[in-house]
Amino acid sequence: MDIHKLNAFIAVVEESNISRAAVRLHMQQPPLTRLIKSLEEELDTTLLKRLPRGVEVTEAGKVLYQEAITILAHAQSIPKRVKNIAQGLEGQLNIGFTNSAGLHPFLPAVLRQFREQFPAVAIHLEEDSSSALTDAVINEKLDIVFLRKPAPIHAEVESLHVLDEPLIVALPNNHPLVSREGAIRLVDLEPYEFVLYRRLAGQDLFDNILANCYQAGFNPNIVQEAPRLTSSLNLIAAGIGLSIVPDSIQDFWNKQIVYRTLEAKKPCIAPIYAIYRTKENSIRIEHFLNLLKESQKSQTA
């Protein structure tokens, strides 16, 4: 349906007079009359009753008027929406993370900052394993994902180092090592039973912990694996074993669990990386990456 005709019809209805509507539209009365007649012929319906001093809208005309208002409002918003999409001010950003990376406070902090700056951009969050998340970025199902290690070398994927998080020891509060003051040496954990976040769910963190133990000269005795990092805390609290966990986990559970810093020849850290495509990124992704980089600078300043 011709928007020009609808605009003319709206003016006539609101002015209840073709002459006044013509003045409002900056056009002559005869062309306006022809527009209205053409619209009635197109719809095969009488839209206006001609009165001695003006016009009166029919019942069918009232329905058309309401629909025309909606259509014109939508049409007028299209250029602005298209411009906003092009500038990254609207649309959707798809973000993924592993369970352990999602528990770090930096992620909700940067998401909040992004929402404050770009409130019209919807954010879709998804949690999965690192391999599944990396594939989702490569296949353009996700825009940015946060993992505990850089992505494998791939021509279409880039890794941005976000932060290094210390690894610490989580102990049941009745564990023999609790009585020790200060940091606990990694090698001193060798005689004890371990509870770890299941490798299938948290491959990066699992492999990182094992690598640190191997470097300290021992293979950890893993007696139980938990489906989620937070689930492992329940097992630790139950006294099933100790664990090596990211420092940020302390914010989620401290009942019946004691946390100690970890001492080793090489610092035990669990890094976090942002993984994204190297080509054809939308402006929304660029906005998020810029905010992420600014957040890094503020943390190191």
From TrEMBL:
UniProt xrefs under SUPFAM superfamilies: Periplasmic binding protein-like II, Winged helix' DNA-binding domain
Domain HTH lysR-type: 1-58
PROSITE patterns reported in the protein's UniProt record: HTH_LYSR
Keyword Phosphoprotein: no
Database matches in Pfam families: HTH_1, LysR_substrate
Key words, A-Z: DNA-binding, Transcription, Transcription regulation
Similarity comment: Belongs to the LysR transcriptional regulatory family.
Name of the protein in its database record: LysR family transcriptional regulator
Source organism per UniProt: Acinetobacter corruptisaponis
